[in-house]
Design a protein that fits this description.
Largest sheet: 3 strands, antiparallel
Distance between the termini: 97 Å
Structural class: mainly alpha
Shape: elongated
Bound molecules: glutamic acid
């Protein structure tokens, strides 16, 4: 065995700083749990002034999806989770794609055999037998084969796998930063395959080799990997390597019983963005799904990414599963939309406004009506669908108790409003506002009694973003007068 190889690999491992990695498999979408893992992993590195690494885990070629790696890069970039090392930016322990590291795993598997932590197994087992662990490892004829026999079989070209040699007795204890010490009986662990017949590693082997060779100090991942952690520990021990800090995060649930899953239609990060959420709001909400701040910030909900870096602490991660709550996310999104500058809001809102407003209207003025009134950007098209064309509407909209209006009063109001508006020289918000207020005073009615029918006639909808003044202003003088006259005609004929 080439000792130099292993020494060279060891020599490349950076030491002395926190190093974390996000290690997604290229499945084609970033589900919410994955995004949260990426965020926590990034935060641990950034909070410690450490290094954040992106590693692509594509050992399971069967699951490979075209364009999936791009989804990962795109999501990370949009979320501001920048990586210091990774397939695209390189780094001291490249390559960062598992399929490009395949030679490494075979070498380490053979090293582990030498060290007594693994063995060649020549038995034929189907994948399903393997998955079910439906065989007695103590009775495996290969586990204790003398080395000469092993060599003879290898020389004869017999296909083999390399299995982990789990101690037959005793217990294994590992420590997790969230779950504390966990001890399991070794008899409950299976001699899992480390290297498959095709020479490719299993995920369970590759992640340990990579985490060691990449100098990973904190392994952050979903709690579905907790059950495998004792076997990882035994691997580290057999190699004589330091075990990293494990941070297993409980799942993100759709409800109290079910994990979120793409199969059940739960949204990925990209789905959420398409559903009108802002990246910053999603990240903020996801950060709090299973983590809570402490001390002075215990009650704080809104955190920018920089604030999260300052506030984040592993001890704030919860053991219990978190439930993904749309209503809560909507609330976060509304807050983020409101907190944008008017220009920034207009920029994100415009494509949505344009879905229903094709005409030549002032986008900034329409956006200003919407900013405090939407939870998701996708709420927008329906809210502004009356600008291009007056919808057919029901005369009953003119009746409003609070504004003291009915069709008859409304007709009177419109008859008074139209000449006043026609006479305005300049079509400004101020002029329209003052003109209407002044007219209401002259007519000796509440402002609302005049504003209500004007708004209904202008928009044709009982609920609109913005009041009569803003809507008339955006519509322009001619269109406003045209719509108000149409309203009068409708009221006169009923
Ligand atoms: N590739 C694994 C996944 O996507 C990552 C597990 C880990 O972080 O170790 O679930």
């Amino acid at each position: 065995m080439d000792r130099n190889y292993f020494e060279e690999m060891e020599a490349k491992i950076p030491h002395g700083k926190v190093r974390t990695r996000f290690a997604p498999s290229p499945t084609g979408y970033m589900h919410v749990g994955n995004l949260r893992t990426a965020l926590y992993t990034w935060l641990i590195a950034r909070a410690a002034g450490g290094t954040f690494i992106l590693r692509i885990e594509d050992t399971d070629q069967g699951r490979y999806v075209d364009g999936a790696v791009e989804v990962i890069y795109r999501t990370m970039a949009q979320c501001g989770l920048d990586h210091d090392e990774g397939p695209d930016v390189g780094g001291p322990v490249a390559p960062y794609i598992q399929s490009e590291r395949r030679d490494t795993y075979g070498k380490y598997a053979r090293l582990l055999v030498e060290k007594g932590g693994a063995y060649y197994c020549f038995c034929e087992k189907t994948e399903s037998e393997e998955d079910a662990g439906a065989f007695n490892r103590a009775a495996d004829p290969c586990r204790d084969l003398p080395m000469e026999e092993v060599q003879a079989k290898l020389d004869a070209g017999m296909p083999y796998v390399i299995r982990q040699k789990i101690p037959t007795e005793g217990t294994t204890t590992f420590h997790d930063a969230i779950f504390g010490d966990i001890t399991v009986e070794n008899s409950t662990l299976d001699d899992q395959v480390l290297l498959k017949r095709d020479g490719l590693p299993t995920y369970n082997f590759a992640n340990v080799i990579d985490d060691h060779l990449m100098g990973i100090t904190h392994v952050v991942r979903g709690s579905e990997y907790l059950a495998s952690a004792p076997k990882y520990n035994l691997l580290y021990e057999s190699f004589g390597w330091e075990v990293p800090t494990y941070v297993h995060c409980s799942p993100v649930m759709r409800d109290s019983q079910n994990k979120m899953s793409k199969r059940h239609g739960d949204p990925s990060y990209e789905d959420l963005i398409a559903q009108g959420y802002l990246t910053e709001a999603v990240l903020n909400y996801v950060a709090l799904l299973g983590w809570s701040p402490k001390g002075e910030q215990a009650e704080q909900e809104i955190f920018s990414l920089e604030e999260l870096v300052k506030a984040f602490d592993i001890t704030g991660i919860s053991k219990s599963p978190a439930i993904f709550d749309r209503v809560k996310l909507d609330h976060f999104n509304a807050v983020y939309l409101r907190n944008l500058s008017a220009e920034a809001f207009c920029k994100v809102a415009e494509p949505y406004i344009r879905q229903s407003v094709k005409g030549d209207f002032d986008m900034a003025a329409i956006a200003a009506l919407l900013q405090a009134r939407c939870e998701r950007l996708t709420d927008i098209p329906e809210k502004v669908d009356f600008f291009d064309a007056l919808p057919a509407y029901d005369v009953s909209f003119y009746t409003n108790k609070k504004s003291k209006t009915d069709p008859q009063i409304s007709l009177k109001m419109l008859e008074a409003a139209v000449p006043m508006l026609e006479a305005l020289d300049e079509w400004t918000v101020e002029n329209i506002h003052d003109g209407l207020i002044d007219l209401a005073a002259r007519l000796e009615v509440k402002n609302a009694t005049l504003m209500w029918p004007v708004r209904i006639a202008a928009a044709g909808k009982p609920v609109t973003p913005g009041g009569a003044v803003e809507i008339c202003h955006i519509l322009g003088k001619d269109e406003t007068i045209r719509r108000l006259k149409a309203g009068m005609a409708m009221l006169a004929s009923c």
